[in-house]
Amino acid sequence: MSNVEDHPQVTECASAPTGAQVITYRDVPLGGPRSMTVRRTLPSRERTLIGAWCFVDHYGPDDVADSGGMHVAPHPHIGLQTVSWLFTGKVEHRDSAGNHAFVRPGELNLMNAGRGISHSEISTPATTTLHGAQLWVALPEDVRAGEPGFAHYAPEAVEGPGWTARVFLGSLGGSTSPVVTATPLLGVEVLLAPHADAEFGVDDAYELGVLVDTGSVEANGLSIGRAELGYLPPGASRLCLRAGEDGARLLLLGGPPFGEAIVMWWNFIGRTHEDIEAARTEWQRQIEGVSDSQEVAAGTFGTVVGDHLPPIPAPPMPNGVRLKERH
């Protein structure tokens, strides 16, 4: 693809806008001593949300022989959507709404938790290297108690001089994803050749996040290194990307400011401490009904169809502390 404007605007991207920031990741182990370690940039002390994006885990490339791969037994969610995106490897998804799918490189799997769902994520036996991102989207108040759902989409690549993009949510560079979201969202994988410059039209009402997977990049003048998340505030109608000497691969995330306070804890997103406490109580109630076959008794979160792994118990709620709203 190329810029099809008859009279494209000349855009100056030499310096980062006021309010731009770079968020450094923290390492978070998932599970036991041979567990995967993910690099988490959202939520962080600096920022909770970019649009409705509220959780960003970036992992790999990991040698599965060393890390054990992804082995996440049934666990619950409320009030959010999970977005799975892989660069390398293959992960099997099963959920309590009866969906069974595989996460493959360059293909979107979006699970809508709504009022409650449980699912498992297991890397396949043939996977030797695992590399990707796990993202969450907060659901707005008017739909967060809706029915669970699932969407899969394999976007075609669009290209321009020195860049290739796959638009899995929203629109960019002439490509539009058909996947319906509760709030306007942008989700794109972008590959940049060494020293490449790429410029895209973007909605000036959107906040933008740039998660760098490989290499380094400047985004509207903001320098972002590998595994860092760059934040750009609303106001710009153009996004200028410039790759370093090794080129870059990045995920571009965006959306208008969410506009609602949320409460996040473990795998739940609500609006109050009581929302979270009720969800935890219900999940634990279901776990206490585990049968000899290790299937979770049906309830708010249902049973993961075709998966007989023991479900993951919820951690204890903070003792004597109310969960705080995040804005």
Fold topology:
Layout lengths: L20 E3 L2 E5 L5 E7 L10 E11 H4 L3 E7 L2 E9 L2 E5 L4 E4 L4 E5 L4 E7 L5 E10 L10 E5 L3 E4 L2 E7 L1 E2 L2 E2 L9 E7 L4 E5 L5 E13 L2 E3 L4 E4 L5 E18 L7 E3 L2 E3 L2 H15 L40
Antiparallel strand pairs: 1-21, 2-3, 3-4, 4-11, 5-10, 6-9, 6-11, 7-8, 7-10, 9-12, 13-14, 14-17, 15-16, 17-22, 18-22, 19-20, 19-21, 19-22, 23-24
Family: Belongs to the pirin family.
InterPro entries: Pirin, Pirin_C_dom, Pirin_N_dom, RmlC-like_jellyroll, RmlC_Cupin_sf
Keywords: Iron, Metal-binding
Overview of this protein structure:
It holds the Pfam family Pirin_C. GO terms for molecular function: metal ion binding. Its cofactor is Fe cation. Keywords: Iron, Metal-binding. This protein has 327 residues and is mainly beta. β2 and β3 form a beta hairpin. It is globular and about 55 Å long. It has a single domain, classed as Jelly Rolls (Sandwich), CATH 2.60.120.10.
Q: What gross morphology would you assign?
A: globular
Distance between the termini: 37 Å
Q: Could you tell me the CATH topology label.
A: Jelly Rolls
Q: Which architecture would the CATH scheme give at its second level?
A: Sandwich
Main sheet specs: 9 strands, antiparallel
CATH top level assignment: Mainly Beta
Radius of gyration computed on alpha carbons: 20 Å
Low-confidence stretches: 1-11, 290-297
**Extended strand count:** 24
Count up the helices: 2
Instruction: Give average pLDDT, whole number.
Output: 91
| Quaternary assembly | single chain
Structural class: mainly beta
The CATH homology group name: Jelly Rolls
Number of self-contained structural domains? 1
Please estimate the helix content: under 10%
Beta-strand share of residues: over 45%
Order of helices and strands: EEEEHEEEEEEEEEEEEEEEEEEEEH
Family: Belongs to the pirin family.
Pfam family, one: Pirin
Protein name: Pirin
Domain Pirin N-terminal: 37-137
